[in-house]
Description:
Number of helices: 7
Strand content: 25-35%
Distance between the termini: 26 Å
Number of strands: 16
Strand order of the largest sheet: 10-1-11-12-15-16
Oligomer: single chain
Amino acid sequence: MEKRLEPVAEQELWKSIRGLVKNRIRVEYGQGTPFFRLGDSKFGGKPHLPADFVWPWYKGERLGCQNRRLVKIPVNRPLSFLLQINLAETAPLDKDGLLPRGGLLSFFYELDSQPWGYDPKHRGAARVFWFPAETKLVETDFPCEMEGDFRLPELSLHLEAAPSLPDWDDLETLAPETAGQLEDGYRDLRKTYGCSPQYASHLLGYPDLIQNPMAAECEQVTRGYNCGSGPVPLSPEERAEIAAASRDWLLLFQMGTVDDREDFELMFGDCGCIYFWVKRQDLAAKDFSKIWLILQSS
């Protein structure tokens, strides 16, 4: 049986963190239907795209082994189509009014090399596209260069609004004074409301952290800093500037392991998650060309 706090204790916790609660849209995967209409929300299968759409590719590097030595191997591959979400379905669930009220949001990622997003050179390994509701869509074939393992099976999506509470590490950054008062029951409260890795895919809200908070990392890496070799050396002025700018980054979508079919499993790293981030002003402008993806793994 799932552990719950005593009602009085839970109410007191809610009072303490009320101002930090966000809304998220939980995404759950189910068996595919025999037929998806153009523009339906779905995972995998052939994407529904404009007829003149140019399939995104990623040109970069990955680590590999040659002659028992780790070497950098060039990568030039088409991105895999992950899922598409009909935003008319999310409109009544998006209680904070952050997403466009209609159209189709489509997510792509390079599944073979799975760049982690700590290096500016990983730009382009993940892409998000928004197509307005009036866009004429067609079912689009995969590039012939894409191997079968990276053509994902078609699954249905179930979308549901839910509260979102910051992970403990994020809480210590967002409200350190509040965090010091809540340690005993806060993690239990998050579990009670489904804020845990068992609900590992959702739009908006706070990320479920596997490693460190990510907003500052997004700001650093998009400024050209490589965050893959420990703390980035910054002057006090730069650190303050990046800390302020990192508040503009919002979680757009978090995806964890997808394994709702006996013969299929999609995993990122070792039971990890991928996190699509977007700046608040870009989201308001419906501009998804500058999103940044970070992968975290245990």
